[in-house]
Amino acid sequence: MSDGSSGQQGSREGMSGRTDGRKCYKCGEGGHFIRECAEYWQAKARGVPFVSTPYVPPAGRMGRSSVTMEDTARRSRSAEGGGARGDTDDTNALMREYLVQMALERKAKREKEEKEERKRKEDEVRFEKERRKLKKLEERRRAEEERDARLLHIIMGAMRKENEEYSRRDDRKGKGKSKLNKKGETVEKEKERLKRRIAIMTQSEEEETDDEELKLLRKKAEKLELNEKRKRGLEVAVGNSPPMVTPEKRVSTRLSEDSKRRISELKSEAKGEAESSGTPRKINLSMKHIMASCGVGGKEKFEQECRDFYDALTIDELKEVCRREKVTYENREITIKRLVIRRSAMAYDPAHLPLPEIPGVHPKGIAAKETVKKEEEVVSPSDDTDSEDEESE
User: Fold this and answer.
1) Per its UniProt record, what Pfam families does this chain match (predicted)?
2) Which region holds residue 217: left if phi is over 0, alpha if psi is between -120 and 50, else beta?
3) Which are the contacts of 222, defined by CB distance < 8 A and separation ≥ 6?
4) In 3-state terms, what secondary structure has residue 238?
5) Which residue from 50, 236, 284, 346 could staple onto 43, CB 3.0 to 4.6 Å apart?
6) By three-state DSSP, how is residue 28 classified?
7) Over the stretch 199-239, which tens digit does the pLDDT of each residue have?
8) Residue 129: what pLDDT?
9) What percent of the chain is predicted at pLDDT more than 70?
């Protein structure tokens, strides 16, 4: 009897475990009723088994109810079936979490792939834009090069045509084709340039020859001075022989007309140089109000006053000043600058200050004047001797 009752009880328990009978019509899951749905899902989210609360029906009558053996057996079977139902709920919760996690991973992967695809498309669009831009620039550059080549070809053709017209015109006139040298000059221009160059070279050669002639004249004058200073004593008789008489050496001191004219020109040039080497000449306008001072900033003030004075002059007056001061006139600013530098040098350069007189030492100007006087004395006796020789003849 006991074996039969235990077998029937096991079969009932299995029946009760397989068919719980409780089902929620809200979410469709078993193991709870609709009133326990919220608690069921909260327990599932926390990962704890769900234990349903027993349903207490409303009290209909007062007093103690009689409990039979069948009620006790039924209650024990429901408790055993609750443990199996808790294990099933835990499995369902784990499966649900796994499925939710898999869904989230698939969603994240899909979003990542979509993001990469969008970025790839944006890169492709950007690369395509850059490629089109570079292609347009290359086409524009090629078009500009072709246009420049066409313009150059047109210009070269026009120049060639113009040169042909010029050559044809020269052929008609009988002058022949004009040839150009390496510098791009025609025959006429080259001739003019060479003429100017030859004239300048001949002028410089004449100046050099004039200087050589001046040196030669000075050497002759020195020789004349030495001949005048030479004095001969009386010859003394030696034994029975009479004193030996030697003819006097006569040096030809006669100068030609060209030499005399050259000496007069050199005298005038020496006088001009002596005057120009000293204090500058006075110009038409008065410069007495411009005074050189030795204080701080005196030189700058003097130069500024000179600059203002020259700046007030006209072109003709400025050219006259340049001619007197022996300054080359190029343009107004450079000329004024040179004149100011000359004035400042004459006022502040120690080389232009007069030296104190020392007894027995003659300055350079006095020595030059004495040399000129000696040359005049040398020339005058020679003229007298020439006149005497002519009279004797």
Assistant:
1) zf-CCHC (PF00098)
2) alpha
3) none
4) strand
5) 50
6) coil
7) 776 666 555 555 666 777 777 777 766 666 555 555 556 66
8) 93
9) 51
Residue keyed to tokens 């004095």: 231
Angle 355-357-360 (CA atoms, 0-180°, nearest 5)?
A: 130
On whether the CB atoms of residues 329 and 319 are closer than 8 A, the answer is yes
Q: Is 241 strand, coil or helix? A: strand
- d(CA 327, CA 334) in angstroms, rounded, equals 11
Residue 245, Ramachandran bin (φ over 0: left; ψ between -120 and 50: alpha; else beta): beta
In this prediction, residues 302-316 reach a mean pLDDT of 84
What does the pLDDT look like over 70-120, one tens digit per residue? 555 555 555 455 555 667 888 888 888 888 889 999 999 999 999 999 999
> Can you give the C-alpha Rg of the chain in angstroms?
68
Which residue type is seen at 25?
A: Y
Angle, in degrees to the nearest 10, between helices 187-229 and 364-392: 80
Tokens (6 digits) for 34: 């609709």
Q: Residue 81 is encoded by which pair of tokens?
A: 């079936």
Residue 343 exposed, middle or buried by CB count within 10 Å (0-12, 13-18, 19+): buried
* pLDDT on residue 256: 65
- The pTM assigned to this predicted structure is 0.23
What is the C-alpha to C-alpha distance for residues 82 and 293, in angstroms, rounded to an integer? Answer: 128
Listed in sequence order, the residues at least 6 apart from 50 whose beta carbon sits closer than 8 Å to its beta carbon are 31, 32, 36, 39, 40, 43, 44, 86, 89
Distance CA 256, CA 253 (A): 10
pLDDT at 14 over 50: no
Q: What is the DSSP string of 164-196?
A: HHHHHHHHHHT--PPP--TTS--HHHHHHHHHH
